[in-house]
Amino acid sequence: MKGAKKLSGTANDRLSNRNRVKESDRLLGRFYIEKENGVVGMDRQKQMELLRLLEEDSRQDAEQLGKMLAEPKEEIEKAIAALEDEKIIVKYPALINWERMDDHPYVNAMIDVKVTPKRDVGFDEVAERICRFPEVKAVYLMSGASYDLSVVLEGKTMREVASFVSQKLATLDSVISTATHFILKRYKHDGIELEDRDEDRRMVVTP
Amino acid sequence: MSTQVSVKSRLSSTVASLKPSGIRRFFDLAASMEGVISLGVGEPDFVTPWRMREASISSLERGYTAYTSNAGMLELRVEIAKYLEERFSVSYHPDKEILVTVGASEAIDIALRAILDPGDEVLVVEPCYVSYEPVIRLAGGVPVFLKTKMENQFKLTPEELEKHITARTKAIIFCYPNNPTGSTMSAEEWQALLPILQKNDLLVISDEIYGELTYGRMHDSIAALPGMKERTILISGFSKAFAMTGWRLGYVCAEPELLAGMLKIHQYTMLCAPTMAQMAALEALRHGRSDMERMVESYRQRRNYVVDGFRHIGLDCHEPEGAFYAFPSIAPTGLSAADFAEKLLMEEKVAVVPGDVFGESGHGHIRCSYATSMEQLKKALDRMEHFVSRLS
Ligand SMILES: Cc1ncc(COP(=O)(O)O)c(C=O)c1O
């Protein structure tokens, strides 16, 4: 119930409005890229496919992607540039399993943060504020929980994380309460299993 | 006193005269080497999606370990019927016209055994999957080969079909989308064959195991054409579309009399298909569509990549519209397919399958499976480029 109420807050309305505009753009086939003559450069389906390929491995070059998608290399470059402009492609990071680096003593924690939403800006103001701290790795607005924001923190030691929570997070004006959960081990991150057990077990030649 | 009996003499003359598969020899060669990149694998490079694995595990936990009915679980047959109707516009009655088999392999076997009398001729469209000929022979039939050519994208033409029909011709067997060529047949192309099939009252065994793996347009089942359901035995399975080769699960659909004939053989020789595999298949049909679509998307991308690659190397390659094989011509190199494949394996450690393993029409071609990672495909193409440039 509480979650449902939250989703109808003002800030979220603004957000979904923006999404709605984008959705109508898509339906009109105007998926951000137009050729000089006004013809759509690459259809939506192909763009989605391109994004999935990049999400899987962002180091594939435009030439290879072009061959895979049966598009000239230049079209791929244009499409990627446009997707970057639109901030649909935000960044090209590597997924690193830091736990395999013995001398990387970082700890991660998830903090449940309960806040008071503010008139007109809802949760956005406090969420954006929390985002600014470099120690903060992720911030999500949650539904259906007894808290509002889920904040992922990284620190060198548990003490460092704990003191960030008590000194920086808990002291923010709209923060009502926090609960800290330390992450003991990462098994899967962003859809990728860190230790993949599905090897290729096929025989070398089969009919 | 012991009399020496040679081992061979104990085998039936039919079995004794079967040639060992050409694939086998190549397998032995490739398997004995280190660092081989294989384009020789005729199965998906994906592990079965977790959803299906989990469904099967859960069924075991709940104690589904007994036989199912001979024809397979009714729920599964109902799902197969819905699926075929929805995807390929063919309708089969789950209770009388669908039989769940141990892979398409068993379906091919029982279909042929159910219809053949000794000496009956079966037209085999080649190049084709290696089991058709031996299974026809085991059923007492006589295979008669129909050739296809690269200039026709390895499609079956009415002329070639008509040429080989005799009074003993009982049936025709083919597979589209095709292993090894990747060719497909459209509804219009099927249409052109119908008058001949009907005039000569031929049964059609249509192996549609690659039916989901098409790129560009949907697979057209010959059974969907007017008047064809009655004479078609449709065979398919879960191996290719859902990456479930090791589960050994397929199915065969036909009108009730034919199906009852196949069921007779199946109930005595197989009893039923494995229960835990049927459970996984049920999940595949109910919830596996998006997993399958992702795999198809990935095959299409890799197909585009390798076909471009072969053409770049100078190996002429028709655009395969289905399955996961490219079938480039190696004729310009002057080598036979077997020599090409063997040298390529020895010198560059890339395994491909010589095209003539799949029938005479495959001479001068190699079958390259692109169901392998992009990384491997890239390396394989590089090595093949070296190899081909050394030859010229
Ligand atoms: C054309 C064709 N038919 C049938 C089969 C066998 O399929 P299954 O695994 O369902 O027995 C294969 C497998 O490679 C095939 O390529």
Automatic annotation (TrEMBL), chain B:
Per UniProt, the enzyme's principal EC class comes to transferase
- Enumerate the Gene Ontology biological process terms: amino acid metabolic process
Q: Is DNA-binding there in the keyword field?
A: no
Q: Which InterPro entries match?
A: Aminotransferase_I/II_large (IPR004839), AspAT/PAT-like (IPR050596), NHTrfase_class1_PyrdxlP-BS (IPR004838), PyrdxlP-dep_Trfase (IPR015424), PyrdxlP-dep_Trfase_major (IPR015421), PyrdxlP-dep_Trfase_small (IPR015422)
Q: Which UniProt keywords apply?
A: Aminotransferase, Pyridoxal phosphate, Transferase
Q: Which Pfam families match?
A: Aminotran_1_2
EC numbers, comma separated:
2.6.1.-
Where is each Aminotransferase class I/classII large domain found?
Answer: 35-383
What cofactors does the UniProt entry give for this protein?
pyridoxal 5'-phosphate
One GO MF annotation is:
transaminase activity
> Where in the sequence is the signal peptide annotated?
none
Which family is this sequence assigned to?
A: Belongs to the class-I pyridoxal-phosphate-dependent aminotransferase family.
Q: What NCBIfam families does UniProt report for this protein, alphabetically?
A: PRK07682.1
Q: What's the protein name?
A: Aminotransferase
Organism encoding this protein: Brevibacillus invocatus
